[in-house]
Amino acid sequence: MAKLGSSELPLRVAVVGAGPAGFYAAELLLRNDIECEVDLFEALPCPYGLVRHGVAPDHPKMRTVINRFDKTGDEENFSYFGNTRLGTDISVDTLREYYDAILISTGSQKPRRLGIPGEELEGSYSAEQFINWYNAHPALELKDFDLSCETAVVVGNGNVALDIARILAHTPEELAKTDMATPIIEKLAASNIKTVYIAGRRGPVQASFTSPEIREFDQLENTAFHINADAMALDAEDQEELEFKDHNHARKFMPVFEGYDGQPSDAKHHIKFRFLRSPVSIEGDGKVEQITLQTNRLSGPAGSRKAKSIGETETISCGLVFSCIGYRGRSIEGIPFDEQWGGIPNVEGRVTVDGKVHTGLYTSGWIKRGPSGVIGTNKVDSKETILKIVEDVETLNVAPNRSSDALREQLVSEGKRPIDFADWKKIDDAEVARAKGDKPREKFLTVEEMLAVLD
Ligand code: NAP
Asked: Cα separations (Å) of 433 from 68, 113, 440?
C-alpha cells in the first residue's frame, strides 16, 4: 500500500471551523512537504469566523486577511463544507470514515459569566450577544437591543470592552462607511447613550487592552474621556510592573490617560474609565437600572497583582451592562472537552484524553489555547499543530472512504445542504452588489437570506 501523505495516497484532513485558526491550518497543510487534501467544515454558510463576526466593523484593515484565506479557498486540494455543523449535520464518526485526521478549530464563543446577582436582568448582556448583533451574525440569539437609556457600563479591560465602547460612541456617519448592516446602523443612530463607563477590576497597568486601540479613541468625534484619579496614583509595584518587557502597551497608553484630565464636559459622548472597580451586583425592577461596583486596592508582587475590596462601593445608574470578561469554548459531541477551562485538552495540538494522545485528533486556535492573542497568533498556533500532524502521519489510521464528493452526496441525501466555496463566493458577491454609498458590502442577516442567493 502507498504511504499516507504520498501523491498516490494523500493525507486527508477535516478541519472543523473556518475562522482564522482553521484557514491558517488549511493553508499550512496544503503547503507542506507531504501531499494533503483538506476539507474545511463550517457551521454557517459564511466562512472567516471572528474575522467576519468578531472584528469590529470600524477595523476594516483587520478583515483584509480574508484575501489570504480566499487564496486557500481556491486551491485545488481544498474543499469547503459551509452550512455543515459538526455534531448536528455531521458526526465525528462520519468524519473518521472519510478523513485520516481531524483538526478542531471551533474557537471560543461562549461568554464567561460574572456570577453576580442581577446578571440575568434584561439590559445585562454578554459581549458576545452585542458583538454578534452589530456584526450581523446570522445565528443571532438576541435580535434587538434597547438603546434608549443614557448610560451603559462595559465590564472588563480587554480589547473587546474597547470595541463595544467605541461602537456605542461612533456617529452614524462614521458607521455608514463600514460593513455594519444598515438596520443596525439605523438602530445605533437612534441610540440615546451618551456615557459609557469601562470598569476594570485592576488598574490601568494591568489592563489587557493594547495601545493602538486606546489611541484610536482620539478619532471619535465629539467624545470626551475621563479616568478616575485614584487609578492614576501608581504604587511601587505598579511602577515595577510597568517596566516589564511585555508591558510596552501600558507604557504607551499611560501618557494618553494622563491627557484625559480636564476634557470638555459638553461633549456629545463621554467614555469614563473606572479602574479598580469590580461589579458586585446589578439591580433593577425587571430590567437593569443600576450597577454596584466595589472599590479595590491591588496587593501582591508586580506581575501577579490581585484586586481586593477596600469595603467601599459606588453605584452607577445605567440601563445597559455588557460583560466583556473573556470567553470559553463550546463542547462538541465526540470530542474531548475540559469543562474546567473550557477548551480541548491537548499537548501542542495533539488532543489528549486523560493525558493520553487521541490518535488522529488535533486542535488549533482559541479552543486549543484559550481566547488570547491577535488574528496572526493563530498562524503560529496552527503551525505547531500541523507540525505534529506531519510527524504523526505514519501512525494515522487510513480512512476507508476517500472521496469528498461522495461525502457531499451523502450529506445531501440525508437532507443537509453543504455549500462549497464557489457557492459562498456567490453569496459574497451578492452582499457586495447590494451595498449602497460608501459601504463595502451589505451583509445578509439570516442563513435563509444567504441560501436564497443560491436558489
Ligand atoms: P481579555 O483580553 O482576556 O480581557 C478580559 C478582561 O476581563 C480582563 O481585563 C480581565 O481582568 C477581566 N475580567 C475577567 N474576569 C472578570 C471578572 N470576574 N470581573 C471583572 N473583570 C473580569 O479578553 P477579551 O477582551 O475578550 O479579548 C479576547 C482576545 O481577543 C484578546 O487577546 C484580545 O486582545 C483579542 N481582541 C483583539 C482586538 C484587536 O486587536 N483590536 C479586538 C478584540 C479582541 P483581569 O486582567 O483582572 O483578569
From this structure: 21, 40, 9
